[in-house]
Amino acid sequence: MRVSVQFHGVHRAITRVNEIRLALASNARVSDLFKHIQCTYPDLQLSQDDIMVSINDQLSTMNHPLNSEDKISFLPHIGGG
């Protein structure tokens, strides 16, 4: 199956891309994709505690199964004061 991963904020600045398309196993979960992104873009230094996951514009979890043509975003937490 193929999915799209969109990068936002600091993640976009580090990867220098807006979006990538990837082929994954048919039984892949968000956690599998997360590991792939960590290996492909080690400069992101992603931590599951520091991001939120969105699938097709809906918040999700790392354990959620992926479907072909899903749009996934790993959203950096935004803070301020």
UniProtKB/TrEMBL annotation:
Gene3D superfamilies: 3.10.20.30
Name of the molecule in the record: MoaD/ThiS family protein
Domain of life: Bacteria
InterPro entries associated with the record: Beta-grasp_dom_sf, Mopterin_synth/thiamin_S_b, ThiS/MoaD-like
Any single Pfam family the record assigns to this protein: ThiS
